[in-house]
Amino acid sequence: MKIKYLGTATAERVPAIFCTCEVCAFARKEKGKEIRTQMQTWVDDGQLLIDFTADSYLHQLQHQIDFNQVEHLLLTHWHGDHFYGEDLALRMSGYAQNLPNVLHVYGSPFVKEFYDRAFELEGRFDERRLLYHTLTPYEETTIGSYRVCPIPAQHGHFEADCLSYAIQNLSDGKCLFYGHDTGVPKEADLSFLAQHHWLFDCVSLDCTGQERASSDPVHMSLKENLALIAHMRQLGLIHDQTQFIASHFSHNGGMNFAQMCTLSEKNAIVTSYDGMEVVF
C-alpha cells in the first residue's frame, strides 16, 4: 500500500494567507517543505482519494496527477479545506468532456447536505458523472479494492458528522488508520476496532497542536499522538513494524518543518510534508 500526501496543512495553510507570524514569515522565505497546502491524500496511485479540498486543482498541477483516474473519493468531513463541493461540481457535463468513469463519493449523511448544496447552486445533478454513497459509522463496506470502516471523528458537531477511517487494501492486506481533523478517538471506538481485528501497518494522525501538551478538543498534539499510539499498542491495533506519521499542521502550532522533524523523530514518528510518499 502506498500513500502520497498531496497537502499536509490545516485550512489556513502555511504560510497562512493573512498571517505574519514567525512560522509564516519563515515559510515565505525558505519555501520548499515549509510550504503546506490543505490536507489531501492520494492512495495507491489514485485507486482511492481522501478528501477534495479547495487546493485540489493546485495539487493536480503540483504533483502531475490526474483526478480522472480516481473512481473512489472518501470524504472525512464537511469543512471547506476537506470538501470543496463547488469544484467537484465542475465534473458535471457542460463543464468537463470525455470523462472515462463515474466518480463514486463516500461520506457521512451530514456531508451529503453540503454535497447536495454544491449541485443545487448549479441547478442540477448528474449521477452519470458523480454518485454519492452514504456511510454509516461502524459499518464496514467495500470500496473498490478496499475494506473501509468509518469511525466517528472528534470534530465538527461530535455527532458522527466527521469521520476517521480504517482502510485495508484487499490486494496486499495492508491496513491504514487515517485520523485527521480529529481529537483523540474515544475508547469505545478503539475497542471496536480491536474487537473487529484491525491491525494497522500505518497510522496517520492529526498533529495540529505540535509540541503543545494538548490541542483543542477537535485536534491532537504530538503528546496526544504518543498517548494514542501507546493505547493502540495495548489494544493490539499496531505491531512492531507499524509506521507512524504526523500531519495536518498549522502555523499556530509554532514550529517549522525542521523543528517538527526534530521533535517527532525522537519519538519514531515521521513528520509529513507536501508530496511525501509512504510505502508499507
UniProtKB/TrEMBL annotation:
Q: Which domain of life is it from?
A: Bacteria
Q: Which SUPFAM superfamilies match?
A: Metallo-hydrolase/oxidoreductase
- Domain Metallo-beta-lactamase as annotated: residue spans: 61-233
Listed InterPro entries: Metallo-B-lactamas (IPR001279), RibonucZ/Hydroxyglut_hydro (IPR036866)
Q: Name one Pfam family in it.
A: Lactamase_B_2
Q: What protein does this entry describe?
A: MBL fold metallo-hydrolase
What organism does the UniProt record list as the source?
Enterococcus lemanii
